[in-house]
Design a protein that fits this description.
Structural class: mainly beta
Number of strands: 32
Largest sheet: 5 strands, antiparallel
Number of helices: 4
Length: 457
């Protein structure tokens, strides 16, 4: 009898464990949750947008994609949401705004979703036949993060923030067809139509990866060239790269040098966070100009602007200049003191004088055609609780959005901008660790250039 009991006891334990495991209750995020937002996308209709709650704090068992809409009164309305595997990284949307691809750092892979319906009645959904809370994850190397579609959208390029690989996914067959090695810690990837190369930035290298990804009759080939950035001050942590509105140059945001012993960023005369304008020529990286700013930097967003090329262009240009002067006058003296101004001076080199002259000549030619073009560059400074606003045409700090006096803390990190006209657009600011995000409208011709229109929390 005792022998039978000794045999049955382990069996009962196993059955009990299996039963308990099958009854495991997942913790689902509520609809429209704001939980460590890492990415945004604004639709071309000018009123619908998506934000990605990553669940980085592991508060729930899932991340979430949330679809919102700005109604006619300017209120933010929840439309619907979709669970995504935790921890969500970044997302990218197809040109026709029908497919969404999301990386999951915890589950080491990618999922794809659909946008159904039309403007005003969009819905997020997975393909029919999906079992469970989300479809099967397409497995990749560890910790996929930033991603981008190639020009014909037949391939999805996925970068990995842990070891720096690049995975190539066939979007039709939905499988990984190639994996290549990049530098460690990829923070962002974008495509340069002028050169036909992809560019990737890294959080622990003073390099930009120049990636050639082309399909041949035999296979899909990937070649990588590391381009060093010769900075005027020490610093190697590239947080973000973006392309200018005209596609001619790129902007990169560098943090200060990181001290791995103290886990702090070094602040001295030899290190400086900065915004670098560069271009790619003959597979070489050439710095056009740099701008030193203050604070520990996060991500960046770019909003192009231009004047009307119409019969009243001269008047429009005058109005634009007047609006910029008025905007400068509106800066709060308490927020920007003399020390801030001195810290925000342009860093130049002797070799830059010639390029600056070329830039002035180019701007003069543009003014003759009444078509002045530039970019507003928004840069997050989380430790200083502000967003720095740089005007590329002046290569100087134009304004800032400060959260220091707000009742609720905001340490901005992720940014996203969407142009809606020559001088108008939207700006999203994610206060990542504070689980809050702000939506602003931008109108360079209005008295109030930056206007807060909604808060996600």
């Amino acid at each position: 009898m005792s022998k039978i009991f000794r045999f049955l006891l382990p069996a009962v334990f196993v059955l009990c464990f299996m039963s308990c495991d099958s009854d495991t209750k997942y913790i689902y995020p509520p609809d429209g949750v704001v939980n460590r937002i890492t990415d945004f996308y604004f639709f071309d209709d000018g009123k619908s947008f998506i934000y990605l709650s990553s669940n980085m704090n592991r508060k729930y068992d899932f991340g979430e994609m949330v679809l919102m809409e700005i109604d006619d009164s300017g209120d933010l309305l929840f439309k619907n949401s979709l669970l995504v595997p935790s921890i969500a990284g970044k997302m990218t949307v197809s040109a026709d705004e029908k497919d969404i691809f999301v990386t999951t750092r915890d589950k080491h892979g990618v999922v794809r979703a659909k946008v159904a319906g039309k403007s005003g009645s969009y819905r997020l959904q997975y393909d029919e036949g999906t079992k469970g809370d989300y479809p099967d994850i397409l497995k990749t190397k560890k910790e996929p993060y930033a991603l981008i579609l190639n020009e014909d959208e037949s391939k999805l390029l996925v970068t990995h923030i842990l070891n720096g690989e690049l995975s190539i996914i066939d979007t039709e067959d939905w499988k990984v067809i190639k994996t290549s090695k990049l530098k460690y810690g990829v923070t962002e990837i974008l495509y340069d139509k002028n050169s036909g190369y992809f560019l990737a930035s890294h959080r622990s290298s003073g390099n930009i990866s120049l990636i050639e990804a082309r399909e041949t009759l035999e296979e899909f080939n990937v070649s990588v060239l590391q381009l060093p950035i010769d900075l005027p001050t020490k610093g190697f942590d590239v947080r973000s790269i973006k392309q200018s509105g005209d596609g001619e140059v790129f902007y990169a945001v560098f943090q200060n040098t990181y001290n791995e012993d103290t886990y702090e960023y070094a602040y001295d005369e030899d290190t400086a966070p900065q915004i670098v304008t560069f271009k790619i020529e003959d597979k070489e990286l050439k710095i056009v100009k740099t701008l030193t700013v203050s604070g520990n930097l996060g991500e960046m967003a770019v909003l192009p602007y231009s004047s009307e090329a119409a019969g009243s262009d001269d008047e429009t240009a005058d109005d634009s200049d007047a609006a910029e002067e008025n905007d400068d006058d509106e800066l709060d003296d308490d927020e920007i003191d003399d020390s801030d101004v001195s810290e925000n001076q342009v860093e130049t080199r002797a070799a830059d004088d010639e390029s600056t002259g070329d830039s002035d000549a180019a701007e003069a030619d543009e003014s003759k055609n009444s078509q002045r073009i530039g970019d507003l560059i928004f840069v997050a400074a989380p430790t200083d609780e502000k967003v720095i606003i740089v005007d590329s045409a002046r290569n100087s700090v134009r304004d800032e959005i400060s959260y220091k006096d707000d009742k609720k803390e905001c340490h901005p990190y992720q940014l996203y901008a969407k142009s809606t006209g020559n001088t108008t657009g939207y700006l999203f600011v994610s206060c990542f660790q504070d689980d809050r995000a702000y939506l602003y409208s931008i109108d360079l011709m209005a008295e109030e250039v930056i206007k807060k229109i909604g808060v996600l929390e």
